[in-house]
Amino acid sequence: MSEQTSTGKGWRRLLTLIMNAKPPKLLLLTALLLSLLSTVAYLMVPIMTKELVNGFSADSLKSSQIVLMASAVFIQAITQSLSVYMFSYSGNKVVSSIRDSLWRKILKLRISYFDNNASGDVISRITNDTAVVRGLVAEHFSNFITGIVSLIGSLIIMFYMNWQMTLVIIGVFLISALLMVPLGRAMYTISKGMQDETASFTSILSRVVSDVRLVKASGAEAEEYNRGSIGINKLFRFGLKEARIQAIISPVISLIILLILVGIIGFGGAQIASGAMTAGELVAFILYLFQIIFPVMSISQFFTQYQKALGATESLAAIMQSEEEPEDGTSTIQSGKTIQLKNVSFTYKADQPILENLELTIESGKATAIVGPSGGGKTTLFSLLERFYLPSSGSIHYGNENIEQFTLRAWREQIGYVSQESPIIAGSIRDNITYGLERIISDEELAQAAEMAYADGFIRELPDAYDTEVGERGIKLSGGQRQRIAIARALLRNPNILMLDEATSNLDSSSEEIVQQALHNLMAGRTTIIIAHRLATVVDAHKIVFIEKGRITGTGTHEQLYETHLMYRKFADQQLRSGIIET
Q1: Is residue 535 part of a domain?
Q2: CA quadruple 296, 297, 300, 301: dihedral sign
Q3: How many domains does one find in the chain?
Q4: What is the pTM of this model?
Q5: Of 502, 512, 548, 559, which one is the catalytic site residue?
Q6: Is 502 one of the annotated active-site residues of the chain?
Q7: Which of 494, 528, 563 is the last residue of a domain?
Q8: Which regions of the chain are under pLDDT 50?
Q9: How far apart (Å, rounded) are the C-alpha atoms in residues 245 and 49?
Q10: Other Cβ atoms within 10 Å of 185 Cβ, number
Q11: Could you give the CA distance from residue 445 to residue 423 in angstroms, rounded to a whole number?
């Protein structure tokens, strides 16, 4: 794809992005009209100055001339101030709408998007890339419009005053513009690289800050410093490249201005000497020259920012075009149905199957355990049940209906999930237990759920009880406490289907016993699916399913599998020797 084609698509993407943000068109039009009025008033000042200079003397100075010039300056100042504010308001409104759309989009994206994109990248797109668009709309667009009007108006008046000098000035500017085109293209490339590198560096920062305890405990400060230093140096080099272009642009513009100014003064002096031009006309001409120079600089800055915005828009458009989770389907689900996996296969890559041809029935109201070696596909199976991913082939049914026929919200409301990590959000214990629930939870209901989860005791011992802040990722709580809060959360959801992913694997024996009691309360009367490595937690399950290398190789009770399944027997014997399960 050629650079011209890419740029052509770029401005269309940018325009689409801005128009989809529903900019306040009436406000923008008002700002544009005020900006035009400001420019017209500004264009009148040199003409009035010419009259003052040509007839300047104490006796000839009229109060009406002073009032007229002061009025023009006052009108220009007021209208410019209002237009700048309106453009800025509109730009911030547009970017706020873009960020809102991005935020809504990100919450609807499939899990696979986050598998392939670092969280820091996503954060940078919403903050840094949208800020570039804001700069274009809020700041540079108004200067661009007024610059165009001022440029055209000044040139028309200058043509009328002295067309020969005006043609020379236009020629110089056209040559300068041709010189600036390759610099603008280089700026686009640099800006795109800068934005991508900023996103990458933000990703490193986000990861290190969130996992700072792991970094310190692993003695990885030097390694992370080196990784961050590489990103900093890359940003530094991009900054230098941008500075080099600016270092070329600034003196070139200054030289052009100086040459034109010297040429006008020299040529104008000769014109005055010959009587072809008055001193007032020369002064006015010089003033109009500045009314060309500053707009040209504003227009140049606009195109520089425009090139940056094109790079940012490319990344934002990629997010907006990414596939979302489906929203259609029925929200009515009858509880108490059997879950059936019918010839289900799943793969991330075509040549790397994760699950193959699974046939499984999970009976309603009973506990089904999924066991097997690490990497066998157990957690992936949970992800399919939660519809984080869709099967590559086959289907999953709840009763007689494919679960894809239900809305995601309705289906996921049926599920209570407790993992080995038990994610905790920054906030209070109350916030964490009631997280995701739209209905108002009474103190009595909250306490009942916590009591059934065996969490009420330690919560009431905390300084602010249920309003105690738990810190980022629940760092102020122990592993067992986090698990019990997760169980209390699941109890409040009152799910029909319970999914336990190694829910006690990271706990000490005393904490595990308490959590097991809490899980027993949670499992009562619910369809429960358990992933476990420690067979002691699942030996009493109604059905145990053994998965290895993505295939089901055995189903039955603990006794049945121990007698008939060689790998299961090895698992059980190893844990028996280790004292993990009892005979």
Answers
A1: no
A2: negative
A3: 2
A4: 0.68
A5: 502
A6: yes
A7: 494
A8: 1-6, 57-58, 579-583
A9: 38
A10: 14
A11: 22
